[in-house]
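The following block was generated as part of the benchmark described in Methods. Ligand: zinc ion.
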Amino acid sequence: MLVSAKDMLNKAKAGHYAVGQFNINNLEWTKAILLTAQELNSPVILGVSEGAGKYMTGYKTIVGMVNGMIDELGITVPVALHLDHGSYEGCLKCVEAGFSSIMFDGSHYPIDENIAKTTELVKIAAEHNMSLEAEVGSIGGEEDGVIGKGECADPNECKSIADLGVTMLAAGIGNIHGKYPENWEGLSFETLDAIQQLTGDMPLVLHGGTGIPEDMIKKAISLGVAKINVNTECQLAFAEATRKYIEAGKDLEGKGFDPRKLLAPGFDAIKATVKEKMELFGSVGKA
Ligand SMILES: [Zn+2]
């Protein structure tokens, strides 16, 4: 059964570890992440972007697949199904489809509008026993042409949003999505510290987890980060393993073209990546 991310993240914040959000794209991704979480007895958050939602034909398909898989695979660790960087309309669709968690990314709105829309969604999420993630200070990425340092959120704006009653808060602290450029200046721990001082027990979320050095991840967790999003890293691992299989000509040997064989190395690579992250984040054995 899907659960809200609230309890798992409050426990993580109090216990000084972080729960991973791993974004899903299809059946192989979902199965790899759920099985790894179960094997490691770790809570887990499955992330779905609006683009991935469309790719998988819609939110209802995803809810059906994830619920079915939890049942058929005998998954007993806490699993949250979470909309990643949702629009206001996207959030409403996921509430209706049966997600257990949503993120409203109002960071591109003026702060007053972000507050107004987040306030409405706090109420809706509470009515459905769902967790809600809000974002302050946009988190850049390659597609935004961001070079070097990502944006840093205003800690006072973070407090205004946290006080609305959201479950967890994503704030820009110099992190970006996708691969980090060579000249990246690193995370701003000064900003993170200031945000935690003002938001207290609120679990903080670190987006763009791919390529952040391990010592920075650990320091971020020590300063209140309780949820870390991983997306690109699983994609890179899947692509590399699949490329090696094909380059080795294995799809041309016997029934190597069978999708269940062709996709197996990528599946194993996702499992290994998720395991590595759960160990780094400290969520192993915390289910
Ligand atoms: Zn993000």
